[in-house]
């Protein structure tokens, strides 16, 4: 087996880099000032033209499906966030720089000394059932989010309704990421009145929000239909008559539908889509993001002393053996940007002083010999069955230094079990995680004992945990930046806890007649359906 794999040349690696690869999942978080108002809200740059082209139905195709549309705490993937954006709005959005700004909220303030987050809501905002989106409604949504078992806003100990448009959230301890967690992740607001009258199952399938469009029907695994909400609070918006989310599980079908004019936007993109759109002369409508991306790489880390990966030199050897920069460059057209750390390049927490482990086969072999593996070793490589090609590239690189990795494809359910709170693994894990500017809460999900993802099989260095806590607890943004940069460097240079390949910004394509959706422009999980218009 080893003889065959060591014979795989780097020419083969280059070939594999051109093969199809699909990426998924993300989350939220970005730079958050201590006080923010609504001055930076995205607005249409072509209002007159949009007005002249009013009408039409925007058709957006995904190969992913949805499990929840209107229950607080039930929205789990960035695809679901995108799918419900026309109806279910958030308290906050992100601007072009990645900063959190108010949306349904008019402003918000944090007070580290008083351990509070104060939210001021916009007046005269109503749900599609005619009830008020006031402080009591928002309080109910946040409490329901916590009751669902989600942990993102556990630092919120109490919620006080100060007046109909003001909430004061009391924290159990200071967390400078709490505004992002509350206003964006947990801040998708639905009608409590509808929920209480109809129950959870009805709310899951029938979103009643405040958005520019209202829900019409959900034909599972086929489509979601939205129609224009005539009483939307912003005069003149939306410009479209409706939006249809269309489920197309086959990528080839999506491409054919785009070429035939049967859909207007592709909301799920992989290498096959990119190649086809390049042939058609279409450029992506999205852009590289500094937060809200997906980080890809491998995790050659173990807390089991009997495994080679427990040894720092082995982890460093694996890092040197893989030309991550070449991998990222070859996938550049799919939204990949090389990163030698967990943080997306260009984000405020990215540390330019992180050295990482440049591609160096001889150094990798030397480190393996020093660790007691002069002839290499055999191991397993676990990967989601949809990402096998990427793992084959990794396998070929490792073979060059004598590491014989057997690829073990995993279906999603098995992968989730292995990478869950109680899961463990005994090899190299293909790793995909959230890429955020506010990186400390993301690190906490994996690199601490209290984590929730890939936590059971990795090392949890004490000084890494201390830096995570210090970054989350910093009282000023400047202090948070300094600690976060130190944290990024320590995770890679001191402990080599993972081998990052790239930060991936999801690519979106639209017909030339489609304008101002802002899909993939501000954050992977949100867009601006109220501004979108179709040229006639």
Structural description of this entry:
- This protein is an alpha+beta fold.
- The chain has 2 domains: 240 residues, Dipeptide-binding Protein, Domain 3 (Dipeptide-binding Protein, domain 3); 205 residues, Dipeptide-binding Protein, Domain 1 (Dipeptide-binding Protein, domain 1, Alpha-Beta Complex).
- A 6-stranded mixed β-sheet has the order 9-10-11-2-12-19, covered by helices on one side. A 6-stranded mixed β-sheet has the order 14-18-13-17-15-16. Strands 1-5-6-8-7 form a 5-stranded antiparallel β-sheet, with helices on one face.
- The termini are far apart.
- The N terminus is likely disordered.
Specify the CATH homologous superfamily of the largest domain.
Dipeptide-binding Protein, Domain 3
E-strand count: 21
Reported by name, the CATH topology of the largest domain is Dipeptide-binding Protein, domain 3
Helix percent reads 25-40%
Task: Show unreliable segments.
Answer: 1-40
- Spatial sequence of strands, sheet with the most strands: 9-10-11-2-12-19
Strand pairing plus helix content: what structural class? alpha+beta
CATH class of the largest domain: Alpha Beta
Which CATH architecture of the largest domain?
Roll
How many whole angstroms does the radius of gyration measure? 24 Å
Percentage of residues in strands: 15-25%
